[in-house]
Design brief:
single chain; about 160 residues; alpha+beta; Aminopeptidase; 8-stranded mixed sheet; globular
């Protein structure tokens, strides 16, 4: 892909665009879930406005096109006072393999280090092999205490990176 990648906070007027991007990014997993589980999970993924009230949504922008997003939070599941949490890392399918996910994650990790935090936590599913491989290459390790089920039939495994 051509053009410089820029990471920035999502604007409230972009919530619907970010939701569409995330549902598109996660849609490949729909076939591995029951229709009810996918419907419930897609609703969670698409609730960008709801997450904006309690977390920061970052976007990766190439030109005037949103190509990736990640949610960063400081409270909630696994996020202690010394921790930054990550949810909903998603990259537009046409941008996969271009480093967008890695750039977003490196931005989050650098931010946590700059803030003097001790760790970054996240959760992902077994089916999300590419994301899990990225996290492991970046030094994230399994942390079973962070395992959870965000929607019925959707199982996520926790990971943490000690800074």
């Amino acid at each position: 892909m051509t053009g410089e990648l820029r990471i920035r906070p999502a604007r409230e007027d972009e919530a619907d665009r970010v939701a569409e991007l995330l549902v598109e990014a996660y849609a490949e997993y729909a076939a591995q879930m029951s229709p009810d589980a996918w419907a419930s999970f897609a609703q969670i993924i698409g609730n960008v406005r709801g997450r904006m009230a309690e977390a920061e949504i970052l976007v990766a922008e190439r030109g005037d096109r949103l190509v990736g997003s990640v949610t960063v939070f400081s409270r909630g599941r696994g996020a202690r006072e010394d921790t930054l949490g990550v949810r909903m890392l998603g990259v537009r399918p046409s941008e996969r393999g271009t480093g967008v996910g890695r750039v977003l994650m490196e931005y989050v990790v650098d931010r946590a280090r700059s803030a003097g935090l001790a760790r970054v936590v996240l959760a992902t599913s077994q089916e999300m092999e590419t994301a899990r491989d990225l996290y492991e290459r970046m030094g994230f390790e399994r942390e079973p205490a962070l395992d959870h089920e965000p929607a019925p039939g959707v199982r996520f495994e926790g990971y943490a990176l000690t800074l």
